[in-house]
């Protein structure tokens, strides 16, 4: 190729060098096809431990990322035309070059429309899915929702709807975070097999096109190993998993989003406390069973109402989450509570969403203390976030 085309190739490749530096966790490979007369040759570039490996002409050369442009340009000089395909999670970049022109195009991974053939089941009617079958097949297969035939498993349609609705409910929050920060750091408290983290990871990186990093925390070594296995299968390099009690965890980096799904009783409080202690910018919690307040609270004017155990338990659930909301507001969060799924699917269906907006709110603290005295309760959450009130 002529000198002018080589210079343009070098300019485009300098941009790719910077992209690899910034997006190393998401980089897959570069495939280069070179033409000379009627013959075609191939080169492949991969990344390992922050070094590039160039496979070309029977050799496998190791090089710095910043050498990429110079090496590829040197090779391209010997050929009439070149097609280069840069691949990272969710995006491909094509560079086509010859003596007449050099063109670069960015293309998102192509997506098939989702879920045809499942409308007769519990699928949400006329839903435009956030996590689409076709584009998200690798993810959905890895977490057991999609079968090898490319269709949602009949017994997993409800779960698919649930995780997709979760994304819908946090979408605005994610977009707000991605607009403020170059990379979104997410901590999953009591992660289990981390299905939500995998889905969020996919959505942030491959749909919103934003960089992210996930840390999964759980006290069970078995589920942590299961999460690590799925991450390895998906090649999600931007995830780490730790066997730890969340009460003992302190993040070394800013936490932009702390999540927890169906952590039982005061484990949800421990997850909220982790978020508050680490000054998380946003929190999304879906609590599970609530026992602590049930065993503590009493309120004389309602004694005839709550003398039936089932009614006392249901009111305890409301009081528990209401107290969590009040304490989050007291430490400077704006909070909303919504239904995560239909109560017909599970009574544990509330989602608490909170975004950091300021410092401790004295008025909110006083309101909480008044409610605490009226009910005669001593919540765990207050005890563990007291230094931040």
Description:
The chain is α/β, with parallel strands linked by helices and 389 residues long. It has ten helices and 14 strands. A seven-stranded antiparallel β-sheet has the order 4-3-2-1-5-6-7, with helices on one face. It is elongated, with a radius of gyration of 26 Å. The chain starts with a helix and ends with a helix.
**Strand tally, please?**
14
| Overall form | elongated
Taking the alpha carbons of the first and last residues, their distance comes to 67 Å
**Biggest sheet record:** 7 strands, antiparallel
Taking all Cα atoms into account, the compactness measure Rg is 26 Å
In total, how many domains does the architecture comprise?
Answer: 2
Superfamily at the CATH H level of the largest domain? Vaccinia Virus protein VP39
Rounded mean pLDDT is 91
Strand order of the biggest β-sheet = 4-3-2-1-5-6-7
Structural class: alpha/beta
Number of helices: 10
In terms of quaternary structure, what is this? single chain
Beta-strand percentage range: 15-25%
CATH architectural type of the largest domain: 3-Layer(aba) Sandwich
- The low-pLDDT segments are 110-125
């Amino acid at each position: 190729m002529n000198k002018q085309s080589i210079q343009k190739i070098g300019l485009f490749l300098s941009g790719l060098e910077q992209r690899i530096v910034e997006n190393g966790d998401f980089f897959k490979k570069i495939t280069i096809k070179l033409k000379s007369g009627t013959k075609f040759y191939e080169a492949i570039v991969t990344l390992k431990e922050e070094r590039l490996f160039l496979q070309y002409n029977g050799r496998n050369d190791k090089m710095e990322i910043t050498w990429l442009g110079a090496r590829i340009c040197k090779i391209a000089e010997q050929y009439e035309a070149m097609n280069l395909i840069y691949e990272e999670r969710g995006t491909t970049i094509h560079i086509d070059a010859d003596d007449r022109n050099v063109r670069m195009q960015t293309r998102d991974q192509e997506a098939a429309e989702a879920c045809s053939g499942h409308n007769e089941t519990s699928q949400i009617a006329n839903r435009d899915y956030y996590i689409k079958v076709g584009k998200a097949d690798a993810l959905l297969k890895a977490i057991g929702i999609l079968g090898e035939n490319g269709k949602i498993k009949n017994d997993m349609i409800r779960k698919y709807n649930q995780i997709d609705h979760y994304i819908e409910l946090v979408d605005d929050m994610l977009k707000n975070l991605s607009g403020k920060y170059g990379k979104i750091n997410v901590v999953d408290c009591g992660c289990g097999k981390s299905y939500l983290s995998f889905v969020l990871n996919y959505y942030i990186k491959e749909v919103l096109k934003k960089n992210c990093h996930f840390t999964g925390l759980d006290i069970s070594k078995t589920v942590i190993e299961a999460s690590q296995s799925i991450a390895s299968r998906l090649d999600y390099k931007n995830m780490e998993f730790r066997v730890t009690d969340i009460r003992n965890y302190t993040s070394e980096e800013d936490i932009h989003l702390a999540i927890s799904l169906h952590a039982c009783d005061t484990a949800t409080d421990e997850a909220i406390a982790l978020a508050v202690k680490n000054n998380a910018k946003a929190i999304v919690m879906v609590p599970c069973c609530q026992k602590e307040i049930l065993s503590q609270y009493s309120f004389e004017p309602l004694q005839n109402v709550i003398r039936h155990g089932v009614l006392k338990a249901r009111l305890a659930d409301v009081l528990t989450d209401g107290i969590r909301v009040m304490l989050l507001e007291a430490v400077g969060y704006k909070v909303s509570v919504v239904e995560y799924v239909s109560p017909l699917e599970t009574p544990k269906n509330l989602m608490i969403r909170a975004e950091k907006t300021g410092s401790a709110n004295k008025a909110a603290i006083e309101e909480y203390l008044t409610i605490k005295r009226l009910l005669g309760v001593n919540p765990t959450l207050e005890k563990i976030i007291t230094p931040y009130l």
